Amino acid sequence: MEIVRMVVVLSAITGLAGFVLSGLKVWTTPIIEEQVLTNVQGPALKQIFLQGDNDPIADRKKLPMPGNEDETIIVFPSLKGGKLQAVAMEASGKGYGGDVNVIVGFDVAADNLVGISVTTHKETPGLGSRIQEPAFTKQFKAKDPAKAALKKDGGDIDAISGATFSSIAAADAVKQAAGWYAALKDTIKTTW
Fold this sequence. Notes:
InterPro entries: FMN-bd, Ion_transpt_RnfG/RsxG. Pfam families: FMN_bind (PF04205). Its cofactor is FMN. The complex is composed of six subunits: RnfA, RnfB, RnfC, RnfD, RnfE and RnfG. This protein is α+β, with helices and mostly antiparallel strands. The chain is 41% helix and 25% strand. It is built from three helices and five strands. A hairpin with a 2-residue loop joins strand 1 (61-65) and strand 2. The radius of gyration is 21 Å and the shape is globular.
């Protein structure tokens, strides 16, 4: 009888704990998402959007992902005087230490890259982490997305010596975002 009571009490405790934890997750998810937007993506957007006079985070829109209408992509606009100048979206590539997330900006008039900014990565400090330095990221500025590949792949971008996987990951993220931009270009231009 004692064992049955123990099992019932432990089941009640674990059930209550599970309920509290699931409620806590539901309650904190929007707060965490807002913090990521403000403290991770916000600074990256400021590095890319130098000319805009709006708040790209406040003006962001979710658009359907090309080829998978069940998922969405967050598109951040850069407006000047109410006119759309550029957009940015975050994509990722597989690096040495895991995913490399990159905000990629596109000039909507010229359909070329405005620039890139690495938001998160787990690359080797001092080596792979150099993908976030201006010496690497500035190579993407004003590039035709078709030429924003590493030189070994026929593009114009110099890889970081000793950090090939990290360089490939950043270039792959740019390629992924360029594909999304090309597919959503008409929708983007009519959304803002």
